[in-house]
Amino acid sequence: MVFLVKPFKAYRPLKRRLEEVVLPTFDNLTDKQLKKILNQSEYNFLNVVSPKAFYPNISKKNSRKHAFDHLDAMIKNKIIIQEKSESFYVYRLNKYDKNQFGIVASIEFDRRNKRILKHEAIYKARSNSILETIEHTKMQIGPVYLSYKDKINMNLIFSKYKIKKPLYKYKSAGGTTRSLWKVDNTKDINLIAKKLSSIKQYYIADGHHRFDAIENLDKKINTGSSKKKKINLLTAIFDEQSVNILSFHRLAKFNKFNSKKFIGSLNKKFMISKKSRFQNPVKPGDLMIYLNKSWYSVSLRSDPKIYSKYETDVDIVEKIIIKNIANKNQNNSLISVINLPGLSVHKKLMKEVDSRRADIGFFICPMPMKKIMSIADRGKTVPKKSTYFDPKPADGLVNLLMDI
User: Fold this and answer.
1) 353-367: per-residue pLDDT in tens?
2) What is the pTM of this model?
3) Helix, strand, or coil here: 137?
4) Which residues lie below 8 Å from residue 306, measured CB to CB, with a gap of 6+?
5) Where are the domain boundaries for CATH 3.90.1530.10 in the chain?
6) Is omega for the bond preceding 391 within 30 degrees of 0, making it cis?
7) CATH top-level class of 5-245+389-401
8) Which contiguous run of DSSP H or E holds residue 125?
9) What are the φ/ψ torsions at residue 401 (nearest 5 degrees)?
10) Structural contact between residues 397 and 11, judged by C-beta atoms closer than 8 angstroms
């Protein structure tokens, strides 16, 4: 089956309106930062993706109309402009003193083609919401973030463009410096298309909900149709060495909770030791938990039977520790589990537990990219919110208008 990675005529923002238009990465923003961005933005893709951020009580019908009208105004007022020629884009992300280079491209989509693999479960309602936005606006706002392990060398392209002046270079609110170069040279386009189309297997790093939405769009349009309509998928493609994986950590709250009983029950399953301060987990199977103003180091690997049964540390935290040891064994009832992403959020975990908004904080070691790829290769999925990629491509920087 043919698999084509192609250039496309992108819609992108005027340089002077860039930081107003591009969607912020909400996971890294405080409520104060987000409110400031929303208040200062006459035009922002958040109006298209989620009008409820501005109008909490808006109806579904008016939400669709608002999204379409706002995007239409952005195009008519030339806040976002369409390229005259089909192009690829070299995309550089810089954070944590690391440069990550990738390519923004369109992929000719066919749900029967298994060249793009998933690894994470999704929230169906979110996927359906994205599908509705695409159907009503005919535009993909932001790419599906893909990675690969094939040994293709893109350094010739990256070295050529990084010394040129980029279309954009700016530091986003989450602390990522983003640079973008347009590739419209025929020779470079052909080289990129040939190399990226030859990759045997792609893996979704971030964007499972968007990918699911495009799968469902393909089903709706092409199921039972004798003439297949081409659906294109907007992607940002980085090799496995150029992605940075963090964890989604967990905060758990129970109806009644006894910390001493919990530690005693936990100690029957795993090796644990009390620590005088937080210590960052260094490899999978290492877990830090916080409760009753104390940090504990937990070795999930110390129970080989459990550790070999589950794919990820998140599985063990959720299914064994939270739902079994802390919930059933202690005759508790689980009230909530909150996902908290990031590299340095242990202080936030401590604050939430100390304030009694949560009973236990779990700081989980990130999964290596090779593990994620292995899970996807075997057709398995990990729990929702298991992996957090930071930095990741911004939404609204490069957008794809669809012929649907």
Assistant:
1) 999 999 999 999 999
2) 0.89
3) helix
4) 269, 300, 316, 320
5) 5-245+389-401
6) yes
7) alpha beta
8) helix 124-137
9) -80, 130
10) no
